[in-house]
Prior knowledge:
By secondary structure, the protein is of the alpha+beta class. It is built from eleven helices and twelve strands.
Amino acid sequence: MNKCPITYEMCQGKYSKAGLAKLSPRLSNLADLPYTAQEQRQEAASRSTKMSVQGIQPKLSAKLSIVNNEFSIVDSKGTFIIKPQSDIFREVPQNEDLTMKMAKSFGIEVPLTGLVYSKDGSLSYFIKRFDRYKKNKKYHLEDFAQLTNNTRETKYNWSMEKLIPVIDNFCTFPMLEKKKLFRRIIFCFITGNEDMHLKNFSLITRGKKIELSPAYDLLNSSISMKKAIEEIALPINGKKGNIKKKLLFEYYGKNRLKLNEKIILSEINNLVDKKESIEELINISFLSSEMKEKYSELLSERYKRLIK
């Protein structure tokens, strides 16, 4: 028996029927990517100027070919993004896929994600593009760096407080989006994501509604680094470390986001209620035993700070 890298369930082949069905009900199999991890990184570097989505992690644009049962690498109009193993940080694809699945369990909107085998046996991460719909049509998408006239060079030069006017000024239902933002910030803190800068938050226009886009680029960056100094990328009340319950729930949630007591309590209850399910996801994930232990220890320590 094997474990499906899309659903984490046990299966006979490389992928479960349920896993393949998430990609397409017509998919009967999924071939390995025809590149090693190193070749994927080389391909990503050579194609980087042709991709609409940039970033530090090497990434490839792909389409799902039902006829050939494979991901086909393309230069444009891709409907999936693929990220190979890093040559700098350990187990990043497994980390990101796990964290995205944890986010879904936590009640955060995320796209379809999973892991796919490469020809060298390594696992690459895939995510379905949420800004695409129908055939070659795009939803309007702008990240918070664009919305605040920042750049890749200044994406850390902001604060959590200064995210709030962006939501107030652009979103159709600001209070609903501020509640969603608050849940994401809590989640990023408990999962050790200290790299949620301005380009990792976006607004999407679907129909006549402008709202926070589905979450992306969620991973436990703290356990991937040897010595993570900061706990969050954008400061709250001037702090990037030693984050405590009062700072998150009272100062940011209640005083700055203006969330009422009922909403604050519901987020605390959600935090408590989802602990067991996200811990179980760590246990059944594709991380190594060592990285599972590191992830679980960090999660436990962060929970202790917020739940007393």
